[in-house]
Specification:
alpha/beta, 5-stranded parallel β-sheet, 3-stranded antiparallel β-sheet, 47% helix, 15% strand, binds adenosine monophosphate
C-alpha cells in the first residue's frame, strides 16, 4: 500500500490530432513523474485485446468519431484505479475531448481531492495536420510515431527505437482524418474557451521542433512542480 506524500498535480494536453500531444506527453510525464493517461492508446489496447469494451469502441474509432462518454469514463477510471497514489500527479492526453468529458473530469478530480493545475494547448495550423497524420506510421509495440515525409524511420516497417512493427493506423487514412479533424473542431475546440475561463489555459506554438515545444512546456510547468520532490516513496 502506498500513500500520497505530496500534493499531486493535474495537467491536461489539448490540441488537434497530429499536433504532437502524444510525443510531448511522453516527455512531460517522464520529466515530472506523472502518470500518463492516453485515452486513444488505452482504447486501441482494448481493441487489440478483443475485450468487450474494445469491441464496443471499435466502430467509433474506425470512423474517427468520439467514443461514447460512459466508455471513455470507464477507461479513465480503470487507469486511475491502477495508480491513484503514486507519483507527482496525472497527465491526461486526449481527454477531455468535449465539455461533457470536462465535467466528468472535474467530478473525478473532486472525488480524489485534486484540482486541475494546467491545460496546455498545443496549437498547430490545419494544413500541417493533414501531412502529419496522412504520412504517419505508428509502432505496434511502443506507440512511437514516425512520418514518411517529416520524420522517416530508417526502415519503413521497423521502429528505430524498439524494432517493433510500424503500421499505418486505420484512422490515419484520408477519409477518417477528415472526421477526426471535424470532431476536434466541433467538439474539442470549445474546451479552449472553457479552460481560458477557468484561468488554466496555456497556449504553445506546436509548429516547431519537438525539443523547442518541450522547452516551452517546461517553462510553464517548472514553477508548478518546483515544490515537489523528483520521485515519491512507497510504503
Ligand atoms: P487518438 O489516439 O487520441 O487520436 O484517439 C483515437 C480515437 O480514439 C479517436 O478518434 C476517438 O475515436 C477515440 N478517443 C480517444 N480519446 C477519446 C476521448 N477522450 N473521447 C472519445 N473518444 C476518444
Amino acid at each position: 500500500m502506498s500513500q500520497r506524500l505530496i500534493e499531486q498535480k493535474v495537467v491536461i494536453l489539448l490540441g488537434p490530432p497530429g499536433g504532437g500531444k502524444g510525443t510531448q506527453a511522453e516527455k512531460i510525464a517522464r520529466q515530472y513523474g506523472l502518470l500518463h493517461i492516453d485515452t486513444g492508446r488505452a482504447l486501441r489496447a482494448e481493441q487489440a485485446s478483443g475485450s468487450e469494451l474494445g469491441l464496443k469502441v471499435q466502430s467509433y474509432m474506425e470512423k474517427g468519431v468520439l467514443a461514447p462518454f460512459e466508455l471513455v469514463m470507464d477507461v479513465i477510471k480503470a487507469a486511475l484505479l491502477k495508480e491513484t497514489s503514486n507519483g507527482n500527479g496525472f497527465l491526461f492526453d486526449g481527454f477531455p475531448r468535449n465539455l461533457t468529458q470536462a465535467a466528468g473530469l472535474e467530478r473525478i478530480l473532486q472525488e480524489l481531492s485534486l484540482t486541475l493545475d494546467a491545460a496546455l494547448y498545443l496549437k498547430m495550423p490545419h494544413d500541417i495536420l493533414l501531412d502529419r497524420l496522412g504520412f504517419r506510421l505508428t509502432c505496434k509495440q511502443c506507440d512511437t510515431k514516425f512520418n514518411l515525409k517529416l520524420k522517416p524511420p530508417q526502415n519503413p516497417s521497423v521502429c528505430d527505437l524498439c524494432s517493433g512493427e510500424l503500421f499505418q493506423r486505420s484512422d490515419d487514412k484520408p477519409e477518417v482524418i477528415e472526421n477526426r479533424l471535424k470532431a476536434y473542431t466541433e467538439e474539442t475546440s470549445p474546451l479552449i474557451e472553457h479552460y481560458t475561463t477557468l484561468g488554466v489555459l496555456q497556449t504553445l506554438d506546436a509548429n516547431q521542433p519537438i525539443e523547442v515545444v518541450f522547452e516551452l512546456a517546461q517553462t510553464i510547468l517548472n514553477p508548478l512542480f518546483s515544490q515537489l520532490p523528483v520521485t515519491t516513496q512507497k510504503d
